[in-house]
Design brief:
Chain lengths: 171, 584, 607
């Protein structure tokens, strides 16, 4: 595993340059801004593979165990590649009492994926999230930036099918 | 502030007591003669190693004023505080936490390396746990045996985080971190990497504070038994300076009891063919190191010169300061020197094929296990040292062989590599190596006899110390650091060109090898380390010869075999090289 | 342009063109809920149409934050009459423009129908939903354009700050806030004035003013609405708090999930800086203060103040034991004040209107108002700000309009995962910190979820525990392992694998977790279980003694044989001919509830 972690040539080099520039531009104590750096890195690379975490640890001059400890603590950081579409099913209380669990199960079934793991076709990562603050529309599902409110179980098939066809804007 | 302002009145179980402001409930209770169990708490404050994360919750007591439970290890008493340690609520709180820990624990005591030396086990006994009311899923992680030195079984971890405090705050190595959260939390290396792949220095300080069997040494005793039972092998053993002041603890002696003679005798009973003394190697190291220092001073070599006998520290500089690899002395550690000579000089003298020699070291240290496996430390394909056993492993072997340690007669080391001086003895404690080196360097530089051999300025327990020694008008400025976090500070100064030292001694463990990761567990009592250090100096005081270069056997080895300090042969056999390693 | 004095501020305010010159003002909701229903497209289209038809001289279109009736969004409020158009669709825009804007007619079909009285209500101010509310924290929320600083100035913005900086000492400010009786809205309910006083007391040249905008309670969206709807109020309050406590730096810790709230907040900070409300020498007073935004990354426990501080320091968000409190040792080890968003939103208003005014609202020990996020099985889902002392019944039945299908309301869950349930017998309890404590509940941050007779309280408790054990930081034993064990017991129970002893186990374990956990998360994690165990013991017993009915069945008296249920059943376990009573084979039923949802005669009996 050591080799795999130390090898950063497999990362997008342009992306690394962007990340370097971002880190370079940080003022004050850089270690303190680890979470922002990780957000930024995840934005560039889509997820936080091990060698990227090691790279970041090195750039910030801190132990990689500490970086990994932070990455694995926060649920928004992903160590695994993510599908083209991130489907987030709200599991906040308002959504839960309105049947979000069934919606989630159905979506997992339709995308043939496991919670938090990318589907085999690389299209979807389905996850549950905590309240996104749109409880008025419970149950709520978001797919990338798009929010679907008052989702009925029988509408789910339709929505997912549209994404499968690549026709994600038809709402 | 007047003393009176600093004092606080409180009651513990109805007893009124007065304590200093800032005292923890735990200490206040102790003052009242009330014992409160603890588990995660670690307080080696004079060594700057304090774990006060208040996370195990087995020390909670009731604050009667608020009716709330507070962790006694980290809660300070306030004026008028009314503490009840044995209220039903407090007892239930403590019990529940312990039962919960046990509900997530493999109850493998009978075959556990920590059996009868485990804080979790004693706590279960102390709290009279007869039933665990909550059962459920347990952690399931692979056991890591990939490093030479450290055995890691996360399933026995209780998340006290003492190891994390040691590795991150004290040693500043940062190999261990909590990963994930909630029930899934595990104390692990980055990405669950194998220990053997990390930048672990193998200092073993995590091991020395782990209350359970989650972190332990890689036990080599069964391999050693195998060699002992192989009649074809000539099995040699050597004993490090710090072992003789600690092993006794495992057999009920007071901390600091010196048991050199009994150890030698026990080793013979275990079947070792020859019993050497690592102290001999220490004397040799001093002679070579002093020579190197004098050469560097005179020849304008890289300064300051750093001692190199602590392998954890060597590993540390290779990984953390790869740009500074020319500053440590090139001398091998004493165990390697003894091993190296045993398989050359001794083999030659006794007509033994080095192939048939097995060299076993008894060390206070787990890093020595990894050191023994370094390729740089071999001569003609033979590793200088084949197996390293820690003080604890030796104690277990003695018990296993049913040897009654207390009744053993004192015995003495074998020649050729068994004679040593007081200078070698003090290798076992912080400041000792540099004091020993100073005694020799002084005479090398000045050509005059050193009358006052005790350099008291170099002794003590502060993390970083310094002193100046006058030699013929030139001043030798000496720095000492123990614990790697302190070493880091000195190294940063060297890197930034700010260091004003000529020679620096660094030891990875708190207090030096007496506090090594392979020593009998101190269970958080730093007095034990102090007692061991005192004994080390007692051995020195009681020695007839107290300067390494005056060790008659050392002189003989140079005469017979090595020629002079720093000779070509000495370089080949007694010196080594370092290489930069990625930090991960 | 920097505003250097109170006079300059007043001059600027007077120069801002008054909206009175226009005859119609449209408040178009762009809060999260409405945005999720594409209100941005709607607003875009409105703007286009207004411009195209040359209506801009008489119509002002304001893109506002949440107007509170989120369940009816997207919403348009047409001033001056406050006519509310609800559930407006993109296709409705043209009709609104033509009828309402051009011809002064009302688009009847888009009006709100009072669910209880079944009558159409034209003006927002006549709706029960709005009538009982009182806005302090949400004062400008939904009435101004949060992106436009002039809107805030026009509503007396930054005047409190100017007065404070120029005329009052930090101590004065602390005294005013103490006198107002304001208590923390983040859950703890601690006196804000006292908290500020503690930090002020500390001697340190470095102090921090921290705003807790983590809003982690599932089902709560009060803070988000304030940040999105009235960001300058928050900024003004932070500068005031900084001045009062001696902090020169402010930090807003906001959850990264609130991406759409971060943008307006950043813009507002920039604008405030541009005009000299942030930065050096604010209002020429010599006081410097600036604000930085810190992002969370998805951890509920980071709402706990010590965890929040660690998270801001780039660490795992693990709480640490108190004392030391943040006011003694906070961010970077320096004295820090941590305040919730809603708490802070009250500050400028208190300083403008006076402590006495504020203290006159609410109850004896709980002053002012509280914002609740009302959700669940209730008609009017949305934000509700009411004076302290309002009862549950008023909120749920008057403001909330009761159950959408008039089913019985079984319980109200308050305080999110740290809270408990309120049952019918307590619906008339006035909501304030102390009354809630006295009935074993807690205010929490303001999530209020209404649950009807169909809710399975054991499942609900399990849901909360799943949440807390998932969000536990894992640092201390009782919470890390204890909540897991509680969850396992609940799972056993709901899987019909439990035993009567499990109930006692749950209770003792819960009580010990409460008393011995390190932080508020663990200390309150058992609340939902213990409180439902107290009030709905029979539901737990049904599981523990395995007498709980789990399968659906059909009431032969009611069934008319329409076959609808038979057609939807995924396991084909319903049999029966047309117009004959249908029967469920319970051994095959997987309790999916599909039949229950389609039956026109309510003949399906839920377990
Ligand atoms: C688990 C946990 C989560 C919390 N989450 C929040 C939160 O999301 N927002 C908040 O303002 N306070 C939260 N708090 C309370 C804070 O610790 C703190 O008391 C509060 O921010 C202080 O502000 P206030 O005095 O203005 O209420 C939480 C506390 C706990 C124990
Ligand atoms: S770690 Fe301790 S309690 Fe656990 S199995 Fe080993 S001896 Fe027993
Ligand atoms: S203590 Fe009990 S379990 Fe352990 S060995 Fe003895 S009998 Fe067996
Ligand atoms: S042996 Fe030393 S360096 Fe290695 S993990 Fe333990 S404390 Fe850290
Ligand atoms: S490995 Fe040992 S020292 Fe480290 S947290 Fe676990 S039990 Fe504690
Ligand atoms: S100080 Fe001694 S015991 Fe510790 S690592 Fe170094 S050599 Fe080993
Ligand atoms: S109570 Fe829970 S969240 Fe709080 S410190 Fe303990 S484990 Fe972490
Ligand atoms: S609950 Fe589902 S499975 Fe059971 S009878 Fe109704 S539709 Fe069929
Ligand atoms: S849907 Fe209802 S009424 Fe129709 S057949 Fe089924 S139970 Fe009978
Ligand atoms: S609970 Fe789902 S959006 Fe709030
Ligand atoms: S010893 Fe005090 S909490 Fe662990
Ligand atoms: S978001 Fe539009 S009314 Fe709440």
């Amino acid at each position: 595993m050591r080799k795999e972690i130390l090898d950063t040539t497999t990362l997008d080099q342009e992306g690394l340059k962007k990340l370097d520039a971002y880190i370079e531009g940080l003022r004050g104590n850089k270690e303190e801004q680890l979470i922002h750096v990780l957000h930024h890195a995840q934005q560039i690379f889509g997820y936080l593979p091990k060698n990227l975490q090691w790279y970041i640890a090195n750039q910030l001059n801190m132990p990689s165990a500490k970086v990994n400890g932070v990455v694995t603590f926060y649920s928004l950081f992903s160590e695994e590649p993510r599908g083209k579409y991130t489907v987030s099913v709200c599991m906040g209380t308002a959504c839960f009492v309105k049947g979000a669990e069934k919606v989630l199960d159905r979506i997992l079934e339709l995308t043939k994926s496991e919670k938090g793991k990318m589907s085999d076709d690389g299209l979807f990562t389905v996850q549950d999230v905590r309240c996104i603050g749109a409880c008025g529309l419970a149950p709520v599902v978001t797919i990338n930036e798009k929010v679907y409110g008052n989702v009925k179980i029988n509408e789910v098939d339709d929505i997912i099918r549209r994404y499968k066809r690549g026709d994600q804007h038809a709402s | 502030m007047k003393l009176i302002d600093k004092m606080i009145n409180c009651t513990v179980n109805g007893m009124d007591i007065t304590v200093e402001k800032g005292t923890s409930v735990l200490d206040a209770a102790a003052k009242a003669g009330v014992h409160i169990p603890t588990l995660c708490h670690l307080n080696l404050h004079d060594l700057n190693a304090v774990n006060q994360s208040a996370n195990c919750r087995v020390c909670v007591v009731e604050d009667e004023n608020s009716g709330r439970l507070v962790p006694s290890c980290s809660q300070e008493v306030y004026d008028g505080m009314n503490i009840e340690t044995d209220s039903l609520k407090a007892v239930m709180g403590r019990r529940t936490s312990l039962e919960l820990l046990l509900s997530n624990h493999p109850q493998d005591c009978l075959t556990c390396i920590k059996n009868l030396d485990c804080e979790l086990q004693s706590l279960a006994h102390e709290m009279n746990i007869k039933e665990i009311h909550y059962q459920g899923e347990k952690m399931k992680h692979p056991i890591d045996t990939t490093s030479q030195a450290i055995h890691k079984d996360p399933n026995k971890c209780i998340m006290c985080r003492r190891c994390i405090t040691m590795c991150n705050d004290v040693q500043t190595v940062g190999v261990l971190s909590p990963l994930k959260r909630g029930f899934d939390v595990v104390v692990a290396t980055a990405f669950h990497m194998d220990m053997g792949d990390t930048s672990c220095t193998y200092c073993g300080q995590c091991v020395s504070v782990c209350p359970t069997g989650a972190l332990a040494e890689m036990d080599a005793s069964s391999k050693v038994w195998k060699r002992l039972n192989n009649p074809k092998k000539h099995v040699i053993v050597q004993v490090a300076p710090a072992v003789r002041v600690a092993l006794g603890e495992e057999f009920g002696y007071d901390p600091g009891e010196i048991s050199t003679g009994k150890i030698v005798s026990a080793l013979r009973r275990l079947g070792f063919d020859t019993v050497f003394d690592t102290n001999f190697g220490a004397d040799l190291t001093i002679v070579e190191e002093a020579k190197e220092l004098v050469d560097r001073i005179e020849g304008g070599g890289p300064m300051p010169m750093l001692t190199s006998c602590c392998p954890a520290w060597v590993q540390f500089i290779e990984q953390q300061f790869p740009e500074l690899l020319d500053v440590p002395s090139t001398c091998k550690s004493p165990q390697s020197m003894v091993g190296s000579l045993a398989k050359t000089y001794y083999a030659e003298q006794n007509n033994i094929d080095p192939e048939d020699i097995t060299m076993v070291s008894i060390m206070p240290c787990v890093a020595k296990k990894a050191e023994a496996a370094r390729e740089e430390l071999s001569v003609e394909g033979h590793y200088n040292v084949d197996y390293v056993l820690t003080t604890r492993e030796l104690a277990r072997m003695i018990k296993e062989a049913a040897i009654d340690f207390k009744t053993l007669r004192d015995d003495s080391f074998d020649q050729l590599l068994g004679e040593s001086t007081g200078a070698a003895a003090i290798f076992g404690t912080t400041g000792g190596v540099i004091e020993a080196a100073s005694r020799t360097a002084y005479e090398m530089v000045t050509g005059k006899e050193l009358k006052k051999v005790d350099f008291k300025d170099l002794r003590g327990i502060d993390g970083i110390r310094e002193a100046t020694i006058e030699m013929n008008g030139t001043k030798l400025r000496i720095g000492i650091a123990h614990e790697l976090g302190n070493a880091r500070k000195l190294l940063e100064d060297i890197r930034d060109g700010k260091s004003h030292f000529d020679a620096i001694e660094i030891m990875a463990c708190p207090g030096g090898c007496i506090g090594g990761g392979g020593q009998p567990y101190h269970h958080g009592k730093s007095e034990i380390l102090k007692k061991r250090a005192e004994s080390i100096y007692k051995i020195d005081m009681g020695s007839e010869v107290r300067k390494s270069h005056e060790n008659p056997m050392v002189k003989k080895v140079y005469k017979d075999f090595l020629e002079t300090p720093g000779s070509k042969r000495a370089k080949e056999l007694l010196h080594t090289t370092y290489s930069a390693k990625e930090r991960i | 342009m920097r505003v250097e004095s109170l006079d300059a501020l007043k001059k600027w305010k007077s120069k801002i063109p008054s909206t009175d010159t226009k005859s119609i003002r449209i408040l178009a909701c762009a809060g999260t809920s409405c945005l999720s229903s594409d209100s941005d497209l709607l607003i875009e289209r409105l703007k286009e149409q207004i411009e195209k038809r040359g209506l801009d001289t008489k119509v002002e279109l304001v893109r506002t934050g949440c107007v509170r009736l989120c369940g009816q969004g997207p919403l348009l409020l047409m001033e001056p009459e406050e006519i509310a158009y609800v559930k407006v669709h993109l296709d409705d825009v043209d009709e609104i423009v033509e009828k309402h804007l051009e011809n002064g007619e009302t688009v009847e079909r888009l009006l709100y129908t009072d669910p209880k009285k079944n009558e159409i209500i034209k003006a927002a101010k006549d709706m029960d939903f709005y009538k009982k509310q009182k806005r302090i924290a949400l004062l400008n929320c939904g009435s101004i354009d949060p992106w436009n600083i002039e809107h805030y100035i026009q509503n007396d913005g930054y005047e409190a700050l100017a007065t404070v900086l120029l005329e009052k000492s930090p101590k004065d400010v602390v005294e005013i806030i103490k006198k107002s009786g304001l208590r923390g809205r983040g859950g703890g309910g601690f006196s804000t004035g006292m908290k500020w006083g503690f930090t002020l007391q500390e001697k340190s040249d470095e102090k921090y003013m921290i705003c807790n905008a983590d809003e982690g309670d599932p089902g709560a969206f009060m803070d988000r609405s304030i940040i999105e709807g009235d960001p300058h109020a928050l900024i003004e309050a932070m500068v005031i708090g900084g001045y009062a406590t001696g902090a020169k730096e402010g930090l807003i810790y906001i959850r990264a999930e609130y991406a759409t709230s971060i943008e307006p907040l950043r813009k507002a900070i920039e604008d405030a800086r541009k005009h000299g409300f942030l930065g050096k020498d604010i209002f020429g007073s010599g006081f410097d203060f600036d604000i930085e935004i810190k992002l969370g990354a998805g951890a509920f426990v980071c709402g706990e103040e010590t965890a929040l501080i660690h998270s801001m320091e780039g660490l795992r968000g693990e709480p640490s034991t108190k004392p030391p409190f943040p006011s003694q040792k906070g961010f970077r080890g320096k004295p820090s004040t941590v305040n919730n968003v809603e708490t802070l939103a009250n500050i400028p208003v208190i300083l403008r209107k006076g402590a006495e005014w504020f203290a006159s609202i609410g109850t004896e020990d709980s002053k002012g108002t509280k914002v609740f996020a009302l959700a669940g099985n209730v008609r009017n889902i949305g934000l509700v700000e009411v004076p302290m002392g309002t009862t549950f019944r008023e909120i749920v039945f008057e403001i909330g309009g009761g159950h959408p299908e008039d089913k019985d309301i079984k319980a109200i869950q308050i305080g999110g995962p740290s809270g408990g349930v309120i049952t019918e017998e307590f619906f008339d309890t006035p909501i304030d910190y102390d009354s809630l404590n006295s009935i074993g509940a807690m205010m929490g941050s303001g999530g209020m979820i209404v649950m009807d007779e169909d809710s399975d309280m054991v499942e609900i408790a399990k849901f909360y525990l799943d949440f807390t054990q998932d969000e536990s930081c894992g640092k201390c034993t009782p919470c890390r392992i204890g909540t897991k064990r509680m969850y396992e017991i609940l799972e056993r129970l709901t899987n019909m694998e439990g035993e009567p002893e499990d109930l006692e186990r749950l209770r003792t374990l819960g009580e010990n977790i409460q008393s011995s956990s390190l932080c508020g998360l663990g200390q309150s994690a058992p609340n939902p279980v213990l409180s439902t165990m107290e009030y709905f013991a029979e539901e737990y017993e049904a599981y523990a003694y395995r007498t709980k009915k789990t399968k659906y069945s059909i009431d032969a008296e009611k069934c008319i044989g329409c076959t609808k249920c038979k057609r939807v059943c995924p396991t084909d376990c319903i049999s029966g001919d047309v117009r004959q009573v249908h029967v469920i084979d319970e051994s095959e039923c997987i309790a999916c509830g599909a039949c229950y949802d389609v039956c026109p005669k309510d003949a399906i009996i839920k377990p």
